[in-house]
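Record type: monomer structure entry
Structure origin: computed from sequence
Chain ID: A
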Amino acid sequence: MQALAVAALIGWGCLMGATEVVESLRTGVLNNRKGPDILAAEQPVFYWALIGFYTAATLTTAGLALLVLAIAVRDLIGARGPDR
């Protein structure tokens, strides 16, 4: 059950990251909460490098969430067997 909760928490974080990336692609502005925003029109190389990094991090996090979810489901299904 703990692994299932961890998978849900990681999945929620991944969903929030994905919405930020999609919103940034839609508006062309990367919202930087601790400094000036990064505009695609003003700094295209920096903007696309960060969008690529954020997208890769979000996809990696989604893979981790799926892995933890698979482990949790396997343990839950295995817990019902005659061995346990």
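Annotation 1: The longest helix spans residues 44-79.
Annotation 2: The mean pLDDT is 86.
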